Amino acid sequence: MGAVDSGRLRPSHTFPAHVLAEIHRAADEGVYEIRGFGTKRPLPGFDDLVFLGASMSRYPLEGYRERCDTGVTLGTRFASKPVHLKIPITIAGMSFGALGANAKEAIGRACTAMGTSSTTGDGGMTEEERQSSETLVYQVLPSRYGMNPDDLRRSDAIEIVVGQGAKPGGGGVLLGQKITERVARMRDLPEGIDQRSACRHPDWTGPDDLAIKIQELREITGWEKPIYVKIGASRPTYDAALAVKAGADVIVLDGMQGGTAATQDVFIENVGIPTLPALRQAVEALQALDVHREVQLIVSGGIRSGADVAKALALGADAVSIGSAAMVALGCNKAVHVEDYQAIGTEPGYCHHCHTGRCPVGVTTQDPELEARLRPEQGARWLRNYLTAMVLELQTIARANGKSHVLNLEPEDLAALTVEAAAMAGIPLAGTDWIPGRG
Amino acid sequence: MNTVDLAATGVRELNRRLRHASDDPSALSWLVTNPKGAHAIAAGLTRPVRIQIDGHVGYYCAGMNQAAAVTIDGHCGTGVAENIMSGLVRVRGNASQSAGASGHGGLLVIEGNAGPRCGISMKGVDIVVGGKAGHMSGFMAQSGNLVVCGDAGHDLGDSVYEAVIYVGGSPASLGADCVEKDMTPKHRSRLRGLLSRAGIEIDPERFRRFGSARKLYHFHVDHADAY
Description:
Chain A is α/β, with parallel strands linked by helices. Helices cover 34% and strands 14% of the residues of chain A. Chain A has helices at residues 17-29, 101-114, 127-132, 149-153, 181-187, 206-220, 236-246, 265-270, 275-288, 306-314, 324-329, 338-343, 368-371, 376-400, 419-425, and strands at residues 34-37, 49-51, 72-74, 83-85, 89-91, 117-119, 135-140, 157-161, 173-174, 195-196, 227-232, 250-254, 260-264, 296-300, 319-322, 414-416.
């Protein structure tokens, strides 16, 4: 046997190693791949935009000396008790069940310390997250797992989930290994089953029904709570307008880069549009209805840094929401307990195995031994530090563009680095005044 | 008896009064007139008040009810008693789609017919329909009892979990993973109790029982055609 000449080994572009492996897996198992995390394919995103900074025509603000405010108020349209946040970065809905109780508590503590909100998820509100979260958004999801009017009333805002960026048009999945006795009890399900959440609400379809549903929720909560409507990025031009028509106080727009605890890989990678174009379309829809800033817009899906936050705000968002990045701050994909990553067939940096319930760092697990690896106090510190760093980055950019409030960032502060990003974000290609599709 | 005329008083004011009803016995009994299809009437009640609604109501009447006893002397729109937690909601007429959706407890009685998706995602509520129920009733029903005294539409109990469905007539078809099960003496006794609580007189002997085959509880390639 002669040695193989590695120079002769030419991989197929159409069938790279991960595609070959997936076909082999599908042939073995006969069912689609279910996994967590978010899309892994390259997509146009915030990295494709840059800020112009100050120049002769724009004066920067002095860092550390001149104020750059970060507070936002959400729910000013109809609710009698809007939500006031100190920073424009919120934590997205992630269920108890997908996450362990320690992770939920850590998130709540960090949000309280930072003056921002956290969000429940599919499965209802846990006592830990209510106690640890000063401002808690309660999700109303198609499954209605754990849906309880008492929890509605003790929430600070209500988020009706129509869709999710990782899977617009799809319902949640929680595999049997994560349906422990407590999770099963909260969801009224048999322990250990593969739980499939509904993709549509059980008692309304379409914007006309949604308007009546919102009226009912306001009646039940005395017209106090801001009502958010969360949409996955698919047709934001229409969806944002219809959410306004239905009476939403706040729209939450989740782009394709948004994460999930468990969904079909084919869904994550092939359905929905990236955050960048979705954000522009939603803002344009709000502007067309003359409700931009009156109906606040929260954007999520691929937000990782203060720079990403600044770009989202400059494009017209009022706040952002992070899910995956918050999990990473809690230790997701950290190079510790490497043998436990390998035991579930992955390595730190590649893990998307939230669906297995065997999270090596104790974030997305119900296993007591694994969950103990994330102490709520430590997790809260990590997430608080990360949020603090993001806010400092955001302020740095805002000051450099001469803004005394981060919401004063605007599209003309930006330039696009690629033709695709220019077209999607509606921002001129750097060095030109050209926006593809606009002459 | 307190009377509220919705032609003169809006739903918002009615619900505010109902939520803040005192413990005085005279404040626990209410008559609502001229509902004229208004939505969210008596939604979100938390107290053991008795409410009689004279006429037809719109969507989500008695939604998320806790403790109250609500009687609708007419027909009702989508989602009557949706997510009911406890108490009793009685519809003297017919109910539109998604009656009792995701209900966690209490009793919903529909003396007439129920539209599609009656008892969808129910989580412990008991629902008794005196007449027929529409298609996809009991869809993803998790727990509780759905009693249909007449016929049931297509795809009854599709993807049902542990809810129990009793049908006095015939289902047009069964949904994915829903199968007929033995009507044991224990189930006959439970059905008799449900009918008694609902105040509906019908012979329990004519009913059949349906529930989950539990074949969709775990992903399996051989069940792919049901996903």
